[in-house]
Structures are given as C-alpha cells and as structure tokens.
Write a structure and sequence with these properties.
Elements (H helix, E strand, L loop, with lengths): L9 E3 L2 E3 L6 E5 L7 H14 L3 E5 L3 H13 L4 E4 L7 H4 L5 E4 L13 H14 L3 E7 L5 H7 L3 H19 L4 E6 L3 H14 L5 E3 L9 H14 L6 E2 L11 H15 L15 E4 L10 H12 L9 E5 L5 H4 L5 E5 L3 E6 L2 E7 L3 H17 L2
Parallel strand pairs: 3-4, 3-10, 4-5, 5-6, 6-7, 7-8, 8-9, 9-10, 11-12, 12-13
Antiparallel strand pairs: 1-2, 13-14, 14-15
Helix pairs in contact: 1-9, 4-6, 5-6, 6-7, 7-8, 8-9
Length: 378
C-alpha cells in the first residue's frame, strides 16, 4: 500500500534517504545535550530501539562542547537542531551528519544579513564536513515575510517557505537536503505535504506531526497523517513525536516502525467524523530543549484535570520550552509554556503571567471555566 516514491536519494553519512531506500525512522534525545551522561543514555535507548538517525539540540557553547564528546562515544548517525542560532553550524558540523535549520528562525540574528546569505553560510559549513541538511518548516514559527504575505493562510505560507528554501539550495548547488513541513494538526500536515510534493516531487520529505502529545491520542494523530501521506508515496523518513518520560523515548521508534508495517500491509484505522470535535490537547515531545522535566508530568496532569471539559471544542497547548513555547501557543485557546521554575500561561496570544508549577493547574482551570461560561452565553 506504499507506492514507489519519486524523490531523489540523498545521503546522511551511511544512511540513504529517499527514492528506493527504506523509510528511515528517527527520534530526538530528550535530555539537555550538556548533560553528557543523560544524553548518551538517550542515544543508547534510541539505538537499542532501532533508530536510523538521532537528533539532538545545541543551544549554547556548553552544548557544543558536549556534542564533541558525544561524537567520540557513539557511532550513531547524528543530526543537530540549530534552534535559533544559525551561526552554531560552524561549530557543530564537524561532529554530526545532518544539520536542521528552521527558516522561521533565521530572522532573529544579524538582521542586516539576507536570509539567502545565512542559508548559503549554513550550506557551506555542511558541505565542508559532509553533512546533509534538513529544511525544517514549522507552522508555529513562520518567518515574518511569509506571515505578512499569506496572513491566516498558514498552509500556503509554510509550503511556499519550503519551496523557496529548496530553490536557494538548488541555486547553491547543494544536493543532500530534505524538507519537513509540520503542524500539530494532522489535517494541515496532510494538506501541506501534498501541496509541497506536487511542486517538488524530487525532494525527500521528513514526516511528523509536531506536538502530537501523549499516547494514545498522539499516536492516533500521527497515524492519521502518515496513513494519508505514505499511501500516496509521500514520506522518506519520519518521526513520531510523543510526550513521554525520558526512559521511554524508544517507543517513538517502535510506533514509527509499526505504522509503516501497518500501512504497507493495508491495515488502516478508520477515524470517526467527530474525532477532532471536543477538547484538543496538544503537547510537544519531550526533547533536549525542555528546561524542567516537570513539563512531562504537567502535561499528564493537564489532561486529567481538563477531562470534565472534553465535550467543549477548545484547544489547550502544553509546550516544554522557550524556543517553541511562545509562538506555538498563540493559536491555542489556552497555552502553557514551561520554563525552568515557572509556567507561562496564555489566552491566545495574550500573556496572563508566570506561575509556579504547583500553582498553574488551579489558574488554568479558572481560565478554562471562564472560556466555557463565555461560550455558553453566546
């Protein structure tokens, strides 16, 4: 049930991605990279689960120093997430096999420098060290120029951003790149990736539903997207992004393999028409950007506490870091993004304040009750 894919094949060190290569399954270390022992343990867990590629995040000089030591202790195929600092590419490229940058983050630093120049610089660092590149477009962090151009049409914005960055890579003569276009809503993931594949059928695609949340709902959301895309020959590598305890991250690999096997065998799961009705809780996967592991426990507590509101069509986002948290909670009715000691509460884009971890749930309930009451009066 997975037809031959039309994409070209790229190389991430020894790993072939795209074309007739097997669909690669990857995940991300959930610990802070500078915590060497914990991150190496994450790598071992993911290797044991059969990960083809393991992504880690680098956000500081301490992380870069740790990355060099990690490279000497593992032969795993490693990808690095540049987060908001594209200049780190020079320091990390010697130690990894793939670099991921987000087009929506390139405007943060050196604003006088053009986006094309920044991409060219990343590509040059990657080429020098034999690294592949992932152009990782995310609906929660759309570059300002695309926001202005497309307004509320987020799908068109992220697809065009991906297409434009592919053209930059092509003009630079850089070939070993792939693209990911992600959102927390599987319907938008399906739409965006189908549109992109129609325009650039040659470019390998990394699939994922970002912030899918906790099992089983997170697995269901991911399955919805993967079934529709893989069955159309769209998708060359994938990640199942689940909110899990650190020691359980291997489950992302296991679920990814299971989904591929099911789709190959034609074992599809029907989705009832009302699946997207009612309360929707999105939560980002536990990753190395998380600054307090209480985030994972908090996500579970939010799910339990809000069960009484399951019939109400509202979205609550629980985000684990300052990188994605502020922007990716804007579209939720209520959003929580977690820092080292406090949780920031938002109502849509409006900031409501920062609260201690043991004080956030009652405050969240107050806001949820107020939203339910306000909608009841309409």
């Amino acid at each position: 049930m997975i037809p031959p894919r039309k994409t070209r094949t790229i190389r991430i060190r020894s790993l072939r991605v795209g074309g007739d290569a097997p669909i690669a399954v990857q995940s991300m270390a959930a610990t802070r990279t500078r915590d060497l022992a914990a991150t190496l343990r994450q790598i071992r867990i993911l290797e044991a689960a059969g990960a083809d590629l393991i992504r880690i995040a680098v956000d500081s000089r301490e992380d870069v120093a740790a990355l060099a030591q990690l490279r000497s202790q593992t032969n795993a195929v490693l990808s690095v997430d540049l987060q908001e600092s594209y200049k780190l590419a020079e320091q990390v490229a010697p130690h990894v096999d793939k670099i991921r940058y987000n087009p929506g983050h390139l405007h943060h630093h050196e604003r006088q420098r053009s986006v094309r120049d920044k991409v060219a610089w990343i590509a040059d660092q990657a080429a020098r060290h034999g690294c592949a590149i992932r152009i990782g477009v995310n609906a929660g962090s759309i570059a300002p120029e695309y926001q202005e151009r497309f307004g509320e049409d987020h799908v068109s914005a992220i697809v065009q951003s991906a297409v434009d960055h592919c053209e930059i890579m092509d003009a630079l003569g850089f070939r070993d790149y792939c693209v990911s276009i992600k959102d927390s809503d599987p319907r938008l993931v399906i739409d965006a990736n189908m549109r992109f594949a129609a325009q650039r059928p040659d470019v390998p695609i990394h699939l994922g539903v970002t912030e899918a949340g906790m099992p089983p709902e997170g697995i269901i959301k991911t399955r919805i997207a993967f079934e529709q895309l893989l069955s159309r020959g769209i998708g060359d590598t994938l990640r199942v992004s689940l909110t899990l305890p650190f020691d359980d991250k291997g489950k992302e690999i296991e679920v990814g393999r299971e989904l591929i096997r099911d789709i190959e065998a034609g074992r599809f799961r029907s989705v009832p028409p009302n699946f997207f009705d009612g309360l929707n809780i999105i939560a980002c996967p536990s990753c190395s950007r998380v600054e307090n592991e209480k985030f994972i426990e908090l996500a579970e507590e939010v799910k339990k506490m809000t069960a009484y509101a399951k019939e109400h069509k509202l979205t609550i986002a629980v985000m684990g870091c300052r990188v994605n948290g502020p922007g990716e909670t804007d579209d939720a009715d209520l959003g929580l993004w977690c820092g080292p000691t406090t949780v920031n509460l938002k109502k849509g884009p409006q900031e409501l304040g920062a609260f201690a971890y043991d004080a956030i749930l009652p405050r969240l309930r107050e806001e949820l009750d107020a939203l339910i009451e306000a909608r009841g009066r309409r």
